[in-house]
Amino acid sequence: MIQLDFWSQFREYAQNHKGNIKLRKAYPQHWYDISFGFSTAHIALTVNGKLKQIACEVYIPDSGWLFSVLFDRKDIIENELNESLEWNELPDKKASRIKLVRSGDIFEQNQWIKHHSWLLEKATQFQNVFGSHIKNLT
Questions:
Q1: Quick check: 46 and 54 in contact, CB under 8 A?
Q2: How far is Cα 93 from Cα 71, in angstroms, rounded to an integer?
Q3: E strands, 41-94, where?
Q4: Among 56, 38, 39, which Cα is nearest to 47's?
Q5: Which helix (H) or strand (E) holds 99?
Q6: CA pseudo-torsion sign 9, 47, 131, 24
Q7: pLDDT tens, 65-114?
Q8: How far does CA 26 lie from the centroid of its chain?
Q9: Residues 53/44, Cβ–Cβ less than 8 Å
Q10: Closest Cα to residue 54, out of 118, 137, 10?
Q11: How many CA atoms lie within 13 A of 106 on its CB side?
Q12: What is the largest CA-CA distance in the chain?
């Protein structure tokens, strides 16, 4: 249930802070998906209680070509985000991921606002940066 509470409060935080992302219902799972206008990719926010990490990623299902094109723009994208990302092509899987991870323990509820703030900021940045690159491809 902690995941449901975390994502429900994230949704509320994003609404209260005028987050310009498409919010959906929260579920008791380790991820929260955000559509940003493309059938070829979406943003996934994740929590990992065991590793004490939170992450923002672009999840690219069934679209190796999109990952390849974005990877060719890796330096530009990372410069626009001012971040170094994990680029996981995952050729043996159906999906690829482009991910930004930081430490964050969802069991420390007094830290949730800090986590929610970071997740909203990164989701918005990913939506803007990756959205502009993907839009130019479709």
A1: yes
A2: 17
A3: 42-48, 53-61, 86-88
A4: 56
A5: strand 95-103
A6: negative
A7: 899 999 999 999 999 999 999 999 877 778 899 999 999 999 999 999 99
A8: 15
A9: no
A10: 118
A11: 26
A12: 42
